[in-house]
Amino acid sequence: MRYNIFLVFLLLNLIHAAKSHLDLAWAQRSIKNRSSRDVSCREGMEYEHDNICCLHCPAGTYVKKACLTVSEKGVCEPCEFDTYTEHDNGLRKCLSCSKCRIDQETTAKCTSTQNTRCKCKQGSFCLPDQACEVCKKCSRCKIDEETVKSCTDISNTVCRKRSSLGSANSVTFIVVVPLIAMLAIIVVIVYWTKSKPSKTAVTSRSLREMVKICMGDSEEVKEEWQNAHNSMIDDSSQLQPFLEQNYAERESLRKLVPLNGPPS
Prior knowledge:
Blueprint: H1 2-38, E1 46-49, E2 52-55, E3 61-65, E4 72-73, E5 75-78, E6 83-84, E7 95-96, E8 104-108, E9 117-120, E10 124-125, E11 136-137, E12 145-149, E13 158-161, H2 164-195, H3 199-256
Parallel strand pairs: 2-4
Antiparallel strand pairs: 1-2, 3-5, 6-7, 8-9, 10-11, 12-13
């Protein structure tokens, strides 16, 4: 009987001790939660650690060991190779650098203070306000459309329908401009031809002058020849009496001289 009473008493003590322990743990948790809620660190400048505010580590580093005093900086460690932090932070480790996809090209390599910069390759794009899981191919305007804005790595091609007036203007431009150019060339050729002395004209004029000169020379020669002929006729008429007298004397002498020759 006494043994049973002892067991009951012991059981009651154990229950009371367990209840007290639970109440204490709950009270400590409440105090800690209340203290955490009461801590207010400056955003962008401090981070919370063990109910106190520590200053951020600068970009390119991370928090290796937190501070022990309010509003002080802990131990900051530089980021290792292929890791980075772009801003002041309270991170326990640096972030891993990104790798550009096969449909992208690298515009800037990763550094301790900057992540890798990538963009879609030429002919493709990704909208900046959407998750870029894969680059999309740039669109092409249709035959009856015109390009308003060309495609870039962050925007697609912008097209709009061609207006009838615009089409007419295009056709007019295509047809009229070559005609104007041809007319201008023809005018230049005609003007150049008119302004340049004609070789044929010069040649013809030269030939006429030569013929004229030659004809003039021929007339002079003919005139000189005629004068000489007339002079010869005059000389012959003057010599005629002398020649006749000389011929008569020779005939008389022949008759007087014998045929056999002069006497010995």
